[in-house]
Fold:
Amino acid sequence: MSIARRTLLAVLAAGVVAGCTSDDEADPPPVVQLGPPGETGTPLTDGELAGLDQPQYTDADVAFVHGMIQHHAQALVMTDLVAERTGSDDLPLMAERMDVSQRDEIAMLEEWLENRGEDVPDASGDHGEHGQHGQHGQHGEDGQSMPGMLTDDDLARLEAATGRDFDELFLLYMIRHHEGAVLMVSELLSGGEGGQESALFQLAQHIDSDQSIEIARMKSLLAEIAAS
Structure:
């Protein structure tokens, strides 16, 4: 078991101990580095705690963040189409909430890059239009395909639709788009090359949770439209 894993378990165990006491003046519980199975743990001194290596971000993390900014930028292109084309009373509000959440996540992704001195890709409207002109909308900066991204033909079809046809197509495309973002998070966290840095891990988990909630909302609205 790795030191990071042992320390995590130890911190969790320490939290349980802390929660069991009502004495606000009590000394904080010790952090224990768990030993191998069958052996007792070893309390860590303040110096040992300070010396523990923390997981650092990797090139895979940077590529993930760059790709997710591009991915979210295309979602904003899609939500911008709703107001003039929808035939639904509910979809505009959903699209507005989605627009806010995507912009918030882009801001968090950009901040993560800025705090580490990494290049920040363009997430403006012009950048999002790459999905409409050429194949850049389907790929990240490293040329790798990003799941869920719409092709030129997909976006052209969405732009040409109105009313109920638009609503159904928008929901189908955006569900696929969000599922692609969830897959990107899963691949990052399971690939072994990234997702270990604490801040990036929490950010990826936030995106996964947010996108999953929106997928459920969209599926519910799509079912309502189909039943009407």
